[in-house]
Specification:
454 residues, alpha+beta, OB fold (Dihydrolipoamide Acetyltransferase, E2P), Rossmann fold, 3 domains, eight-stranded mixed beta sheet, seven-stranded mixed beta sheet, 26% helix, 28% strand, binds S-adenosyl-L-homocysteine, transferase, TRAM_dom, methyltransferase activity, MeTrfase_TrmA_CS, S-adenosyl-L-methionine
Length: 454
């Protein structure tokens, strides 16, 4: 007989939270059947109502707390916790760091890998750290509002304090929104695919304080853009460049392909590890500059460069890692998919007077193959891939080149563990404890540095 779930929708009862998922949801179990519960922490006894029942798991919500976890902290507005901007906001920061370390440990254990994980390096002030914001604009009761979409939904919630963004960016978003309102710029309407302004993106240099405003519009036409540009500059004297980006697609992707510079050079500059970097709208740039310096320092120290090495920096972005390593290596090769970022990287080499770095545009997996054919034999390979990790072809080419050391910077521990297994199958070993560096406080994201050696 088919086993039915042991709970039904709208059922209410008391239970205890026994775990926290990697997405930050509390877990309770009824006869082994898991219920996922927002805003609930391990050890808490809660009264819940079942909201959704599917075959193998369900969702419930807390009606009342019978006791509270010692790790629970006061949240600043519960909308944040529920929605995904700051899903760990109700968990004390030291416990967040432990949670992240434990995530990595559990994944390793599941893969039967006996590898140590260090304590996560955290922030002194784990709020208002993001140097970039991309905020949707919508119309509510005739007014332009900025905010965010609830996790897994199209429900728009208007807010002005984003908690984890640079506060100057929060202020800038409101100021730009008000200028757009003043000039009667219509907000984008997703359903009808009408209206003009879709998103406001702001980037601010942590050291330089230079600020970039990007207006993401549905159509190329932005009525009164000259006046709007002037009004933004007046409201925000620190803005050094304003760009209009057109995205006419029906998509969740924020930026379209086309940029039109309305004011300034079309990019900002910022410093990292004492070097200067140009950052264009489409280029990736680490969003937590304070932690990035710690992350890179840990990676460089572990790379152990002496000045004689050939290094490949795969997924090189605007060249931050390549250029920071350049003076400690003989020759560096970088590869990056986004051509605008590669253009920035090449410019950044010039700005910083560095001439032992070559940047290529394309898929890292293809360039690894090219380099392997060209008999390039790197001493050190640095990889910093997106969440999906390394392609099998990438690992294959790496194994042909046999670098002595691989420095793996990862933003997704589950693909990291999979890839470590790929290297280990060829005899590589993890020679230092995996180091988590918390780039994303209040969220469930985890960044790590791993060293593999042969
Ligand atoms: N190392 C850089 C960038 C890391 S983010 C830094 O620390 O700033 C990952 C980068 O990989 C992004 O710039 C992204 O555009 C790029 N990317 C994504 N898929 C890629 C692929 N298949 N080949 C090369 N680069 C890729």
């Amino acid at each position: 007989m088919k086993k039915l779930p042991p709970v039904i929708k709208n059922q209410e009862f008391d239970t205890e939270i026994i775990d926290l998922t990697y997405q930050g949801m509390g877990v309770a179990k009824v006869d082994g059947y898991p219920l996922f519960i927002e805003n609930a922490l391990p050890g808490e006894k809660v009264s819940i109502r079942v909201m959704k029942v599917s075959k193998n798991f369900g969702f419930a919500k807390v009606l009342a707390f019978r006791n509270e976890s010692p790790d629970r902290v006061e949240t600043k507005g519960s909308a944040y916790t529920q929605t995904g901007i700051a899903p760990l906001q109700h968990l004390a920061y030291p416990a967040q760091l432990k949670f992240k370390q434990a995530q990595v440990q559990e994944l390793l254990k599941k893969a039967h890998l006996d590898i140590e994980v260090s304590d996560a390096i955290g922030m002194e002030d784990p709020f208002h750290y993001r140097n970039k914001a991309q905020v949707p604009v919508r119309e509510i009761a005739g007014e332009l509002k900025t905010g965010f979409f609830k996790k897994n939904s199209h429900d728009f919630i208007a807010i002005e304090d984003f908690l984890i963004q640079d506060e100057e960016i929060d202020k800038a978003i409101v100021a730009v929104r008000d200028v757009l309102q003043r000039f009667h710029v219509e907000a984008y309407d997703e359903r009808a695919h009408k209206g003009i302004i879709r998103h406001i993106m702001v980037r601010r240099g942590h050291y330089s304080k230079q600020m970039m405003v990007v207006l993401v519009t549905r159509s190329k036409k932005l009525p009164m853009f000259t006046e709007i540009t002037a009004a933004i500059r007046e409201a925000l004297p620190d803005v050094t460049t304003i760009v209009q980006n057109t995205n006419s697609e029906k998509t969740n992707v924020i930026l379209g392909r086309e940029n039109k510079v309305l004011f300034g050079p079309g990019y900002i500059e910022d410093q990292l590890n004492g070097l200067t970097f140009r950052i264009s709208p489409h280029s990736f740039y680490q969003i937590n500059p304070v932690q990035t310096e710690k992350l890179y320092a840990a990676a460089f120290e572990r790379a152990g460069l002496t000045g004689n090495e050939t290094v490949i920096d795969a997924y090189s972005g605007i060249g931050t890692i390549s250029l920071s390593m350049a003076k400690h290596a003989r020759q560096i090769y970088g590869v990056e998919l986004v051509s605008e970022a590669v253009k920035d990287a090449k410019e950044n080499a010039k700005i910083n007077d560095i001439d032992n770095v070559r940047f290529e545009t394309g898929m890292a997996e293809n360039w690894m193959e090219n380099w392997s054919h060209a008999n390039l034999r790197p001493d050190v390979l640095v990889v910093d891939p997106p969440r999906k990790g390394l392609e099998p072809a990438f690992i294959e080419s790496t194994l042909k080149m046999q670098p002595k050391k691989v420095v793996y910077i990862s933003c997704n521990p589950s693909t990291l563990v999979r890839d470590i297994e790929g290297f280990m199958a060829d005899g590589y070993k993890v020679t230092k404890p995996i180091l988590p560096v918390d780039q994303f406080p209040q969220t469930t994201h985890i960044e790590t540095v791993t060293i593999l050696e042969k």
